[in-house]
Each structure stands twice: as C-alpha cells, then as structure tokens.
Amino acid sequence: MPARSANWLLLFTASGLAALAGVRSAAAVEAPSLQRVGVHAPASCSDGLCVEVGVALADPGQPDACSTQTSIVADVGDQLAWCYTLTNSTDHTLSWHTLSDSLHGDLFAQLHQDIAPGESWRYIKLEVAGSVVDGDVAASWTASSTRPDYAVDDGVAFAYVDASDGTLLDLAGGFSHARSALVQVPFPVDLFGTRSDMLCIGANGAIQPGSTPCAIPMTYAFPSTYVTSAIAPAWSGYADGVGSVHTKVLGSTPGQRRFVVEWKDLALDWPAMPGFTFEVVIDEAGGYLFQYLSMGSGTGDSGDAGGQAIAGLQADGTTAQAYSSFAPTLTPGKAVQWTLQSPADALTASASVHADVGAPRLVLPVAQLNAFAASGISVSQPIVIGNDGNRTLEWSAGEYPASSVAARPRRTVARTAFDASALQRHPERTAGRASRASTAGVLGGTGLPAYAVQLDTTTGAQDYIGFDLFAPDAGNAHVILPDIDLAGMNVAGGDFVDNDFSREWMLDYYYDELYTLDTGDGTKTLVGWPVPQQIQPGEQWWGAAWDPASGVLYAVTNSNNGWSGLYTIDRQSAVATFIGKIDTGTSTVIADIAIDQSGAMYGLDTLNDTLVAIDKASGEASVVGPLGVDAKFAQGIKFDRSTGILYWTSYDASGAAAVATIDPVTGTPTPLVPSGDERQLFALAIARAGGDCTQPLDAPWLSLSTASGTLAPGAPFGVYDVTFDATMLAPGDYEASICVFSNDPARRTQPVIVPVHFNVVPAADDELFADGFDG
Q1: What is the pLDDT of residue 20?
Q2: What distance in Å separates the CA atoms of residue 661 and residue 649, rounded to the nearest whole number?
Q3: Exposure of 221 by Cβ count < 10 A (0-12 exposed, 13-18 middle, 19+ buried)?
Q4: Of 458, 496, 568, 698, which has fewest CB within 10 angstroms of its CB?
Q5: Cα dist. 11→214, 412, 733 in Å?
Q6: CB-count exposure of residue 262 (10 Å: 0-12, 13-18, 19+)
Q7: pLDDT tens-digit map of 439-492
Q8: To the nearest whole number, what is the mean pLDDT of the chain?
Q9: Residue 193 CB contacts under 8 Å (≥ 6 apart), including other chains
C-alpha cells in the first residue's frame, strides 16, 4: 500500500476535530495563532502569569472579537467564540506556551511565542457547539522561558518486556527503509510537553507522534529534518521485510498504563548484520524507557551495539536530546530512562467560564401503532411524544416540514479569494492509459451499497462502478461500465430518484445532458438537455441530489469566478430552472450536494473546505463547519437515508482518498476507511431507502388530532389521538408511516418513523373490534 493510504486516519487533523470511530484524537490540535492585544489586566493571576477566559456567540461581522463574558447559554449547533487572554506580569520574557481546557483538551502545546513583560496576547477558538455541555469549563495556560527537557539515566534496572504476544503491526505504509504503521494509543503520549494519541511507528527503530504522512525514513542527523518529532530507541536503516514490530498495553488503570513498542529480530541493511531486538516502554505519566535485548553480532563489528544508530528524543526539526549518535553504546542488557523535567520558571494560571449548551431530545415511547376495526367504524389510539432534553422541543408529524435547516443564522467565515484551480475537476494524468478489461462479478452482499464514477488519476481512466462504502478499495469494486469518458460521457454528479436503485440519474457537464445509467449493465438512456442559464460566465454542472421530501431533482453549477448556483431539473423535460446563488458571504465551489430524509440540503465547498447548509428555496447558505482537509477536485457526498448518516468520498491535495462521515450539525468529519490513493470517487449515490413518510392524501383513513407542538424541558409527555377511520374501507390490512420531525439535533437529518398497521374486518365482527384493540 502506498504511504498515503496508511495515513487516512490523519487526513482530517487540520480542524482539530478528527476522530477514529468517534474517539477524539489528542493529536488533532488545530494550528494555533496568537494575537497581540493592548495591555490587559485579567482577574486570575498566579506568580505574575495572568489569564482570562471569555465565551460568547460568534459575531459573523467580527471574527476576531473577544468576549469577556464568563458564562454562555447556547444551543447545540450555535457557533461559539472562546477567547483566552494571557498577560505576562513577570520580569522576564515567556517563550513557550501550552493551553488546554476541560472541554477541548489541548488547544496548543509548546507553542513558541515570545511574550515580553507587560504584554498581553490572546487566542480565539471558533467552533460549532456539537454536544450538550452543562458546567464549568476550566482553562489552564502554562508558560516558561525555555521548553521542557528530559533527565537521562542509563543506570536503571533492565526489565525487558516481551511484546511478541501483543499486536503484530502491518508495516504497509512507506517505502523501503520507511515502512511504517499508524497506531492509536489508549492514552495521550507526552513528548516535550506536546501530547498525541496517534503514533507513526517505523520499522527503522523510530516513532513519530501524530505523524502525517506516516512514513519515517532512515536518518543521518539528529535532530532530523525528515520528521517533526521523534522517539528513537535505535533509529537506523534496517533490512526491508526482516523481523517484526509488536505493540502491547500494560495495565488498565488510567494514569498508570504503559505502551510497549518492540522491534524484534531486525537486521542492519548495511553493513549486513542480523540480531537486533529492542523496545521503548512509554509511561502514561510521560516517561520513556529504552531497553536493548540484543544489538547485532556482539563482536564489535561496524554497526554493532548502535554503531549505525541514533538513540534519543526529538522535539522538532531544530531541537533534540541524543543519548547515542552512531556510537557502539547501545549494548545488550542496557536500559535508558527518560524523565520529563519542567522548566524551573514554568508558571501556570487558570480561569474558568460556565457553559450551558443545550438541546432538546425527542422521545417516542410507543414505537408503532396497531389498530383494529370493522368496516364502518372509527377508532383511535394515542401517539406519545416526550422531551428529555434541556431545551424546548419543536415537533411536527405527517407532512414534511416546509422550513430548511439552512435557515440558521449565518456563521463567521473568512472571505476567501477565488482560486481558479479550485474548478479543476481532476488532477493531471501522470501516466498513459493502458487497455483494461471490466472487473468480473456483481455487487452483492455489501455493507453499504453505493455507486459512483471512479477516476484513476494516474491513467485518467473513468469507470462507473458499484462498491461497498465500508470497503471501497478498487479491488472490491464491480466495474459496471468501463471507460465512460471514452464513450463520450463527462459526468458531473448524480443520484438515485424515487428510491429506484436500478438506474442513477446523471448530469453531463460538457454536453449539458441529463441521462440515466443502468446499475446492472451500464445502459445509458438520454432524458434531455438541461442547460445552465449562464448567470455567470463559464457556468457548468457539478453535483446533483434528489429530494425525498418534495421529489424534486436539484443540481448545482460553478462558474469561473467563485460563484455557485442552485437549480431544479425537471425529470420529464430536462428543463433547468435557476433558484439562486449559493451565497455564504464569500466565494464558493460547491463540488456536490446531498439532501437528507427531512428535505434539508447540504453542500461541499472545496474552495473553503467547509460543509454548508443551503436553503432550497433561495440558495442562501450558511457554513456548518470546517472539513479539516484540503479537499481538491471532484468529490461526493450523499446521505444514507436509512440511517441519516452523511457520507463523503474525499480526495485531498496530496492524492490521498478516504471515505468519511460528516456531522451535519458541526461539519466535523470522521474518517472510516481509505479508498485508494490517486483515486477519485464522485457522482456518489447510496442504494439505501429512507423510510417513506405517508402524506395525508395517501392515507385518508389516518388522521392526527394534533400535527405539531412544543414541549418544554421537563414537561409531561404529550398524548395525541390518532384516528383510524374504516367507514370507507373494505376489509383488509392497511399500512402507513407517521414521520415525526423535530429540532432534536440527533434527529435533524432523519425523521423518526412510527409504523402504522390497521386491520379492517367485515362489519359482522363490529362488536368484537369496536374498541380498536385485538382481544
């Protein structure tokens, strides 16, 4: 596997919110930026270090505004501005800074910024509130004139840990002398005061915390410019494919755990020499223990006992502590203990604010309704709705809601200068195209069936494929129609319509065509020619999505000046009708759109690397949140309407590709699985139906006494009658679905569906069934 595929876990770190399977990574800390401000006098001081914390709703017109509020009442989905201000009231310059709080963890660690006596600097964090918070958020700012270092003791007892019964690493990433694997550790690893729970473990005897990309080469100097930081018990050039690397966790009590990485039976590449087994034991408290079981021939030959290795710890490309550098000092039986030492002048100041971030929570204790009646009889049953959240619940049932999720206030967003390269759909080809045969087999038995156009950017080949979103590698895909570009198709976007998964509706950006592709054999059926109205020069089709709430097919265009437009397309005539500019307050390139089961529309803006919410009626849009990756070229986003989960087939500027989910409340992506380097997947369509919401005209025998309402926090359950009217029904079984929509953030992308079953029997049985219940 190429090196980039090994790094898909860290493709999304720039936003500070990346996660693996929902676990927040301590490695994913946003790139900090401090601002100097006028001399400030915060209230909370300790030995001359003063800090103040404020929090407020973000002001779209003043992204750098800093509030002095010490409490906030907000809702999940609101954009908040957290402001941390430090004042140096000591008599010396403070140069190294670490800021953390009890909500976000590390905001930055060991940031180098000289703050002279009397100066005040601040850090502002803008974020979309993604979860309920109720309590104090305590912040801590530590500053010193020098950075932490380590005390080294090579006289400690040797107590080697055999990790071969632990986890054997698949060193698939990188190249010869850089084979590596990315591993998540059960606790944050502290290196020179910077913490990360992601480690890039190299076959060459070194580890890089929080590494991206994960491919550690051999080195000839220390500190090394090849890595940002390093834990190096015996960093050298070992023979590719010889020996193994294992990890093991010792202990289970938080604060007392240890993580072992063992390099076993390695051999030097040059001079050729087998017999290298060594390890590092990482202490959760911040210490490192290097231990050497065997280190070569034992005869004093060149390369023996670390003669071709570096042992030490590296903070960055300019700072490191070496224990041994190409010297035969790493003898068998040796143990070297590294203990973190805080600078003598390190100061810490703390302050706190109170956060009340709330959300309603929809509860439906009766999951389905079953009624029985004889012809000519009406009966009723209750639907029960509750709210166990801490904000007022607004709900409606039956009809799809008319409002759009994009009606939220516009959020703070930096104005982006338009870059014409953002309109490039595909990277340049790096090799000629070879003749290829269609992959045999059919799409079946998949975890999440999906269809898309795949582009191999190394050859330029474009195929229409079926694949499993949970296993999206090219080797697992079924090629339905190979080389569609050579067949004259220039696909911009697509989606399934009316839950018909036998054909995907596609837009062609070059010929302005609307057609369908058969998902079985790839047959193309032309519908017509939807032509963009050229509201802006160079307007071309990009993404498309079907709206399950209205049955309308929507599409987006982009022009060559950073302008995006929203259209509807008539599926009978193919006529395109302009709705409006997709306006977030800055230039955009909307690569694709997705519409959830409730009818709310979202767009993927690859110019600003954000998820946006779009009002279907006007095109007005608001930024949901940052994607945390430099997204480039064609992309795909679509909802699995059966679950309400938004999926993204991502492709970044380095050529790394992955499947991720995106939180529609915050815009935060969670990577799931790599999809293959230099391989784009676009015109994504997911073959899963959402539950069908029965409309009143479709089931005239079913009616609700109350179709909408509100429930305050702590209010008793609402009980509302549902009438089953058999006066005009023949005997038989009748089915329907009542969809309950709400402002519960967890249900925002999908209504709660209450199945309804109505059994109507002949009138002769009126007496038995008159109460509406069986028996």
Answers
A1: 21
A2: 9
A3: exposed
A4: 698
A5: 11, 24, 52
A6: buried
A7: 333 334 458 999 999 998 888 899 999 999 998 888 889 999 999 988 999 999
A8: 86
A9: 96, 98, 109, 110, 147, 148, 340
Whole-number Å distance between alpha carbons of 193 and 44 = 23
Residue 597's nearest CA partner among 544, 636, 548 is 548
Enumerate the β-bridge partners of residue 595: 601
DSSP output for 370-417: EEEEETT-EEEEEEEEEE-SSS-EEEEESSPPSS-GGGSPPPP-----
How do strand 44-46 and strand 610-614 relate by DSSP bridges?
A: unpaired
Beta strand segments in 652-771, E: 657-662, 669-674, 679-686, 702-704, 708-711, 718-725, 732-742, 752-761
- Alpha-carbon gap, residue 553 to 536, rounded angstroms: 22
The pLDDT-based confidence of 64 (bands split at 50, 70, 90) is confident
CB 290 within 8 A of CB 323: yes
Three-class DSSP labels, 510-573: CCCEEEEEECCCCCEEEEECCCCCCCCCCCEEEEEEECCCCCCEEEEEECCCCCEEEEEECCCC
Question: What DSSP string runs through 692-708?
Answer: PPPPGGG-TTEEES--E
Q: Which of left, alpha, beta for 767 (phi over 0: left; psi -120 to 50: alpha)?
A: alpha
Residue with tokens 């089961």: 597
Tokens of 423: 């309109």
pLDDT tens string 575-633: 999 999 999 888 999 999 999 988 899 999 999 999 999 999 999 999 988 898 889 98
Q: What is the pTM of this model?
A: 0.74
Task: Specify burial of residue 371 (Cβ count, 10 A radius: 0-12, 13-18, 19+).
Answer: buried
**Contact residues for 251 (Cβ-Cβ < 8 A; gap 6+):** 257, 258
Helix (H, G, I), strand (E, B) or coil at 214: coil
679-712 confidence digits (pLDDT tens): 899 999 999 887 667 776 678 999 999 989 999 9
CA dihedral 475, 646, 213, 317 (to 10 degrees): 180
How many residues in total does the chain contain?
775
Q: Which domains does the chain have, with CATH numbers?
A: 32-147+346-356 (2.60.40.10), 150-341 (no CATH), 360-400+693-769 (2.60.40.10), 439-686 (2.120.10.30)
Residue type, 70: T
